[in-house]
Amino acid sequence: MSPTSETAKGGRRLVIVESPAKAKTIKGYLGPGYVVEASVGHIRDLPNGAAEVPEKYTGEVRRLGVDVEHDFQPIYVVNADKRAQVKKLKDLLAESDELFLATDEDREGEAIAWHLQEVLKPKVPVHRMVFHEITKDAIREAVANPRELNQRMVDAQETRRILDRLYGYEVSPVLWKKVMPKLSAGRVQSVATRLVVERERERIAFRSAEYWDLTGTFSTGRAGDASDPSSLVARLNTVDGRRIAQGRDFGSNGQLKSEVLHLDEANARALAAALADTSFAVRSVESKPYRRSPYAPFRTTTLQQEASRKLGFGAKATMQVAQKLYENGFITYMRTDSTILSDTAVAAARAQVTQLYGADYLPPQPRVYAGKVKNAQEAHEAIRPSGDRFRTPAETGLTGDQFKLYELIWKRTVASQMKDATGNSVTVKIGGTAADGRDAEFSASGKTITFHGFMKAYVEGADDPNAELDDRERRLPQVAEGDALSASDITADGHATKPPARYTEASLVKELEEREIGRPSTYASIIGTILDRGYVFKKGTALVPSFLSFAVVNLLEKHFGRLVDYDFTAKMEDDLDRIARGEAQSVPWLKRFYFGGEGEIADASSAGNGDGDHLGGLKELVTDLGAIDAREISSFPVGEGIVLRVGRYGPYIERGEKDAEGHQRADVPEDLAPDELTVEYAEHLFSKPSGEFPLGKDPLSGHEIVAKDGRYGPYVTEILPEGTPKTGKNAVKPRTASLFKSMSLDTVTLDDALKLMSLPRVVGTDAEGVEITAQNGRYGPYLKKGTDSRSLETEDQLFGITLDEALAIYAQPKQRGRAAAKPPLKELGTDPVSERPVVVKDGRFGPYVTDGETNATLRRDDDVETITPERGYELLAEKRAKGPVKKTAKKAPAKKTTAAAKKTAAKKTTAAAAKKTTAAAKKTAAKKTTAKAAAAKKTAATPPTED
Q1: What digits encode the pLDDT tens for the residues 260-290?
Q2: pLDDT value for 602
Q3: CA distance linking residue 466 with residue 247, whole number of Å
Q4: pTM of the full predicted structure?
Q5: Is 290 a catalytic residue?
Q6: Which residue intervals of 225-287 are DSSP H helices?
Q7: Which of 797, 795, 791, 794 lies closest to 812 in space, CA to CA?
Q8: Contact at 8 Å (CB) between 406 and 393?
């Protein structure tokens, strides 16, 4: 049945998709007999808290949202914010003759379709409509060839959801009790956090080694050109036949791993001097053919990695932009494990190769890329431009981030159907005898590309910023064995081994995929979760674990080791895939995971759940918590008796026992990278002023005045006498004031403190008797007269400004909107997307980057002095991907509503009816208010989320 007005005469068809944008695009491809509406994501899920669970459920069922005693029956509830949309869908369905469920074709999309069917309870024929691109032909094909719901996919997704709920809701409370409230654990997020923490542990344990080598510049003695340079640069390779030590020869402990010659500075400089007058000759020239094949088309993870390397996008930002491209019909579905291209796509790519690059760049046969990802089944094709003819980026009309990501996908897809790049790689070895008799051999490598092939269209980026890209040529002079060369310069170069690089979003995605942990389509949200939870923060593009994550991972490793074991997590993923294929049953598998193997191993194993060794006993693990020492799992030795502890209010260092003589304690900055907490830095923290600093007594009240360092900076306060009520109607709050920016804890005086606590200061009154005060607020010093506030330029004006000066300020017209623009704190260059200059500015909420169109606040790990242009562009790209902030729609004033009601009533009925309408409006408003209050209560009681 094709979507034409003729076929639509048979009745009305309701098509349900996930998003309004997708609905809008599809609506244009279907005839008038079709109604396309969005579910706006999931309409039903496990409850977010006990308040959402129906009253008939009690005990563990109410807490978990899953009845573990009755075959793990999930308790689904319609999301509060989707009830109105569900009602709309039911009303539309009541007027329809057929229902098409057109949600995404992956497991999650299949689950959404199943929930829609369960909630809407259609009495008309139901069809599952699937497509991986939103084009006219694809949509018509999907309508004409629907299928049934895939119950196996639904079961697998439901099992995954229940598993994650049990993991999150059982393990997270352990973290609350033993580490800190409001933490969360998850099947994949906890393992991802462990990876980042383990990398930081490697960096902490790392010991750098110094090594030296020589670099020589050798000349052929003839004039050179671009194809035949006159000189080459080579590195020392061997001395008397022994290879010179390089960075790869040292272990993480700084010791040599192999039998090589380790040159120190003195030996390197002595050898360089001994080679100053040496005659050198070419000892060998080895040439090999070079061939590089194109990269496979993008799947989800490779798109995230490459967008990070080339565009500076985070995984989340990449998926947000890709979602928009898909929903608007520019690319195929962006959550896929496959690298396969359809025959139509291959034909489109090959046609574009011929058109844009010529027949010489087109291979005789189409290239076929086999899916490398284990259990790849989330979608059936790679990410590519949609349609049977690819639009070039210029033809799309796209701008900004969408243009950049589309261009990346387009180039990669077209390049995948081009010829190999070919050329030659050359290694030249140069030798000579030093003045002291030692034989030295240098080596240089070159590469020339004779046919660029696919590199004309696309070259993949690298995670290592120092890595050489595939299309980089290194031309060497044309020399032959025995040719004499002269050394124009020989220098001794010192090097130090570096600790392993921290993960970036791109490299963490790659690591998770290689370890087969989780589903690639969820990696963006997983990284977002560990960032939002404070387990990880960004330093540039690097992911740095917080001290909090060290405590969490420490607890999980010591007491829930299997749950964060990489192989165990990967094997669970295999089990879930077997359930999806119908090779295993979900209930026996969940029983073994939650209750352990006793009594269920036989049933589970017979259902294809493996050997029974890697599952069992979550409930028992979280029940016996007596062995967990909260202080021990949150304590980490720094050295020389110093211990880092993760407390409920943040990390701190300590030396000695509390209340003992010589005890020291100091807070640790939360954004300090763990590998930077050395003994030297700890001593520096101990030496900083901390605790209370008595300043003296207030001569008027007699109260002790002290200076302190608080969470929001240094401040002064008074100590109230014992017995002063702190709560209730007669409660007395101590006077408190923040220090000025020019003050510090070790220099503030009693007079300073008394002046600060005297604020606000009455400056005087205006001609009408209205009092003017000088106050220090959240955004700086200001004057206040009634409800009219005016900013002051400096903090010192709070005590020095006179009434005449204040009146002069109020005599000026009040600035509406922005004040006079401050000069930028730093200039970063031109943004590659907007092509506008990017600067760092100081705003009311702190420093931010802007290109004049988009503003992005600096994160806590960003510093104005050290921020790079690339980091500035990344922040702007992330902000653009999020789109504009949605403003909450304001309700119309009550008067207008009443007036409108009266006007309508006057046309149709009497004044009495108008009163009735007004009363009904009030009643409805009261219901809405009550509903809001109830929703607020539910939100407040929401437990942790799970992966």
Answers
A1: 999 999 999 999 999 999 999 999 999 999 9
A2: 33
A3: 15
A4: 0.72
A5: no
A6: 265-274
A7: 791
A8: yes
